[in-house]
Amino acid sequence: MQRTQTAQAVAAYFPPGTRLTVPRGGLSLWIELPHGLSATALFHAALAENTVIAPGTIFTNSNRFESHLRVNCGWPFTPEVDRAFARLGQMVELLKEDKK
């Protein structure tokens, strides 16, 4: 259920060009940011607002997943979590604008 709610939040709040991968099992989702955006930059922006995300680069020894986030869906999907996804979507939009 949390994975479905998280997927719906990503679809609702993240800008066009964002892609979501739902693995067959487990409690995680992978979010691929729009082309050219850095999940590490998003990590730092989110951390400045006391929100912690996991950029894809921490799961590999290369930069292969620089534009990816791994999201844990094992926690209850509360209104606070929904607001955090809304804010993350805004941050991604700002990163996208900065790339122009």
Structure explained in plain terms:
It is built from three helices and four strands. Helix 1 packs parallel to helix 3 (79-99) and helix 2 crosses helix 3. 42% of the residues lie in helices and 15% in strands. The chain has 100 residues and is α+β, with helices and mostly antiparallel strands. 19% of the residues are buried. The chain is globular. It has one domain: Alpha-Beta Complex (Aspartate Aminotransferase, domain 1). The longest helix has 21 residues, at 79-99. Strand 1 and strand 2 form a beta hairpin. It has a four-stranded antiparallel sheet with strand order 1-2-4-3, with helices on one face. The model has no long low-confidence stretch (mean pLDDT 93).
Q: What would you say about this model in short?
A:
The chain has about 100 residues and is α+β, with helices and mostly antiparallel strands.
Largest sheet, described in full?
4 strands, antiparallel
The CATH H-level superfamily is Aspartate Aminotransferase, domain 1
Strand content: 15-25%
User: What's the number of domains?
Assistant: 1
Average the pLDDT over all residues and give the rounded result.
93
CATH architecture identity: Alpha-Beta Complex
Helix content: 40-55%
Distance between the termini: 37 Å
State the total count of DSSP E strands. Answer: 4
CATH class type: Alpha Beta
Instruction: Kindly identify the CATH topology.
Output: Aspartate Aminotransferase, domain 1
Strand order of the largest sheet: 1-2-4-3
Uncertain runs: none
Query: How many helices?
Result: 3
